[in-house]
Amino acid sequence: MSFTTDTLEQDLKTQEYKYGFITDIEADSAPPGLNEDIVRFISAKKNEPEWLLEWRLKAFAKWKTMREPKWPNVSYPPISYQDIIYYSAPKPKKVLNSLDEVDPELLATFEKLGISLDEQKRLSGVAVDAVFDSVSVVTTFKEKLSELGIIFCSFSEAVHNHPELIKQYLGSVVPYTDNYFAALNSAVFSDGSFVYIPKGVRCPMELSTYFRINALNTGQFERTLIIAEEGAYVSYLEGCTAPMRDENQLHAAVVELVAQKNGTIKYSTVQNWYPGDKEGKGGIYNFVTKRGICKGDNSKITWTQVETGSAITWKYPSCILQGDNSVGEFYSVAVTNNMQQADTGTKMVHVGKNTKSTIVSKGISAGKGQNTYRGLVKILKKATNAHNYSQCDSLLMGDRCGAHTFPYIEVQNSSARVEHEASTSKVGEDQIFYCNQRGLSSEDAVNLIVNGFCKEVFRELPMEFAVEAQKLLGISLEGSVG
Amino acid sequence: MLTIDNLQAKVEDKQILRGINLQINPGEIHAIMGPNGSGKSTLANVLAGRDMYEVNGGSVEFNGQDLLDLDPEVRAREGLFLAFQYPVEIPGVNNTYFLRAAVNAVRKHHGEPELDGAQFLKFAREKAKLVELDPTLMNRSVNEGFSGGEKKRNEIFQMAVLNPKLAILDETDSGLDIDALRIVANGVNALRSPDRSFLIVTHYQRLLDYIVPDFVHVLVDGRIVKSGGKELALELEEKGYAWVEEELLAGAIA
Ligand SMILES: Nc1ncnc2c1ncn2[C@@H]1O[C@H](COP(=O)(O)OP(=O)(O)OP(=O)(O)O)[C@@H](O)[C@H]1O
Ligand SMILES: [Mg+2]
Question: What is the ipTM of this complex?
Fold first, then answer.
């Protein structure tokens, strides 16, 4: 028997049908591949209202017409979007009332990563919404927050409990038409976090979510939406870790931030996904769209990121400074070791008057790592007295790695002040020897030097996060000098 | 304390040390003088374990151990300190934090408990006073933007904090004003003790007015060609190195 293209296609179709959403709604995960049925399957799985399904389908239709961006300074084998599983849920056990009921194995993993929920609850008063694969497993501190009118929940919950807010804000900062990966995310997003801080409320604790990628072959499509109403303040921490993986995993998250008048959002990330092995095998593809809008006057958004993991990072947390006197900040440390590649930076779009942006980017390259800073500062016509300060520093370890800087500046208003500074330095043999001579091992010396290099970024992180970030930096650069 | 026997070292195929012999006993202060490029810094760096220099002959014993066999950080933890001729800047690393990390590395090596921030600060402040170090320097990045003299003083401060058994000072007096010179010398003298030794590299007899050495050695072309008491420094100052070289030549002919 010979296969014609037609029979093959027919065969595939029946297979798709076999796993279609209607017949297999009980399945714990979707079959690999992406089509309209899968989008419907995900939406049905989550019991979503019709309007959201429609939105997903529109995004999917748009995505099919788009092409993967090729301009980033990274290279990787083509991604087979039809081999990815777009939905998987851990086996539901029972409703959890406290941490004691959480799977001890899961807790042990968190512990190993130094982010035990227990300890965090006790020591730092951090409310944790842990996302294990695609479904929220445990949420803490919710009650305390709800007394203040703060909403902190999984995205799916918000869809059901606060549909008016989701309807109003979903896609308002990152429309599904924005880019290839944002469109993909909009079509298939699994879950994520939702935060709403009402008018005049200062969130009394750092809100934190730890993501993990666990099930084999599961693309992760997180969706996060944070809204700070007038005069509200929130600091949000996102930490990511993933266990060893042999196959590349695609991660395409979307984060949207909205700061109303006098509102402030601080968004901090420590990203530590599996970077692949020394030969570049495995590792996460991290293609993220993060954007915030300073909608009201005097609002402020700060992005702080420490990116040590992933095989490939493609990420530009951005700010649209619409309100007058609004402030956008971007503080970044990006590490590439071995075969890691990163093309990351920010976009600061000045729309309102007296808007101010600060960019501090620290790129560290070791091994054969390639590190690219790509940043856009755009000052629109009406943005009188806009001010940007950018500082891009690169640190090289060894001579097989690379650092690249692409600053783009577009100024349409002559009153703008735009300052750009850049530097490239090497971890010097003389610096390491100096530390050795004071009793420090070479490894400690490198840690010290690298942490010194990153200081301006680390001091923007909440204390306990900064400590973790320093540890991570050490781990990810292990063995890169010697 | 330290026994150097026929030490030879080269860098990039250039032989620099051509057989150094030197014995330093506990409590002694030895001064090394010699023309530019004669190998003084090379000797200091080889003793400290810088791997840019290749030792291709001889041996060094430090308190009963084969010094050349130890990693540089172990030499430091065992009590060998080098005040650098050109102290290195480490941007973004707090001077006090750096020094505490160093002290704790040493303490750990000796099985002593590490000092916490408060304990260390108290201790460090006393030492800063001893060398009259501007306290604001303690909170700046290691040597970053320090003036030449401040860097040198910071080296002496580190020495005072680390409490070494053998301190090698490589031209710590160069670039110091008269007051700073006196302060540095006072620092060294305050640390002078029967179980601590110093090897002081200098070009100027002036320093030796303040820090009176037990022995003075003249290093020429990778060899110690003349040794004597403190009066040798005076003689050198007066007659220059040409005098030693002429003497050498005469000796060779005779
Ligand atoms: N890394 C190196 N590469 C090449 N040559 C070197 C290196 N280090 C030292 N040298 C050479 O070795 C010789 C001895 O240098 P060294 O620094 O030990 O001299 P010194 O006695 O300390 O001089 P000074 O009084 O000027 O400080 C010099 O000729 C110097 O150029
Ligand atoms: Mg020298």
Answer: 0.95
